[in-house]
Specification:
The chain is an alpha/beta fold. It contains twelve helices and twelve strands. It has two domains: about 1-160 and about 270-320, D-Maltodextrin-Binding Protein, domain 2, CATH 3.40.190.10; about 165-265, Periplasmic binding protein-like II (D-Maltodextrin-Binding Protein, domain 2), CATH 3.40.190.10. Strand 3 (about 90-95) and strand 4 (about 100) form a beta hairpin. The protein is elongated and about 60 Å long.
């Protein structure tokens, strides 16, 4: 679901909401971000991700995490990271071309725990794993869904759960708090998405099982059509990837609200490293767990309106465990 969502829903988001973002390839110039910078010059649209980079920059090195960092990376002092910044609010660029988003903030925070800095490189999503395997990059934060096939190619360290969320009109006038609150109402989704093909039929079964009226499904060709249906009252709610819902509800809070209590069809997303870099993967896990323990992780997830996606601990190659 998440790979499809990345290529469809967020291509629209990047074009519609982050004007000026250039197409990216693996040959583009790196965008340097210091792992020790409290905020730097990177900034998301007003009201989006506020405080996330400051929280990341305030993180101090954790000796227990530093002890796990392989000497080769300690010697370099800077991790070469790669992402495809066309996936707001996870990874995107601001109006000055700086890479911003949830993952860049978490990457800076994790690197600070390791006592390292980070340098971000822009790359095409479909070529990132090959770039890691060729050792052009040390790691990638690029919203990779964890799959058994990917774990055969790289090490994956999970840091959040992604899934389907619900967005309603500002203020949640219908008081939607659980899936069965959608029964008897019109719910919109984009054609061809997991939400339209899988999640809405699952919701219908839950309504039937609860003895409630069926949902009226409103399947529309473009995500902006779906958003407009909620805005105008044509639909009571929409189902979409939770990162998209989080972004729109932050960017346009006068129009939309996220239903924080609904997150379904969840799957972990992960930072990836070379298959031979098991020690680095363990250092990333320790760094993320340390961020969870000291509260920084929660601050960053909350800054991007993704608190419902939080995990209680990171895991190395969770699909295999």
């Amino acid at each position: 679901m998440k790979a499809l969502a990345r290529k469809t829903l967020f291509a629209l988001t990047a074009v519609a909401l982050v004007a000026g973002t250039a197409a990216c390839t693996n040959t583009e110039s790196p965008a340097a971000v210091s792992g020790n910078a409290p905020s730097g010059s990177a900034s998301a649209p007003t009201g989006v991700g506020a405080g996330g980079r400051a929280a990341a920059g305030a993180v101090k090195a954790d000796p227990a995490v530093q002890a796990l960092v392989p000497d080769a990376f300690k010697s370099k002092g800077t991790l070469q990271l790669v992402t495809d910044p066309t996936y707001a609010p996870i990874d995107f660029t601001d109006d000055q071309g700086n890479i911003v988003g949830l993952e860049p903030d978490l990457a800076v925070a994790a690197a600070n725990k390791m006592g390292l800095k980070v340098n971000f490189n822009k790359g095409d999503f479909n070529g990132i794993i090959a770039g890691i395997q060729a050792r052009r990059y040390d790691a990638s934060w690029a919203a990779f869904s964890v799959t058994a096939d990917r774990e055969q190619q790289v090490n994956m360290v999970s840091y959040q759960n992604a899934g389907t969320a619900i967005m309603v009109k500002h203020g949640n006038p219908d008081k939607v708090a659980q899936v069965t609150d959608l029964c008897g109402k019109t719910v919109a989704a984009q054609t061809g998405t997991t939400q339209a093909l899988t999640d809405l039929p699952t919701f219908q079964k839950q309504c039937s099982d609860a003895g409630k009226p069926q949902i009226t499904e409103l399947i529309l060709p473009q995500q902006d059509n779906v958003n407009q249906a909620v805005q105008t009252g044509r639909a009571a709610a929409m189902a979409a990837d939770n990162a998209l819902v989080a972004y729109y509800s932050q960017l346009q809070p006068d129009l939309f609200s996220q239903v924080d209590s609904i997150l379904v069809d969840t799957a972990p997303e992960a930072v990836i490293v070379h298959k031979e870099d098991t020690a680095l993967a363990k250092a990333f896990k320790a760094a993320i767990d340390s961020l969870i323990a000291d509260g920084t992780y929660g601050k960053i997830m909350g800054a991007w309106n993704l608190g419902s996606s939080k995990v209680t601990s990171a895991a190395v190659n969770p699909a295999a465990s």
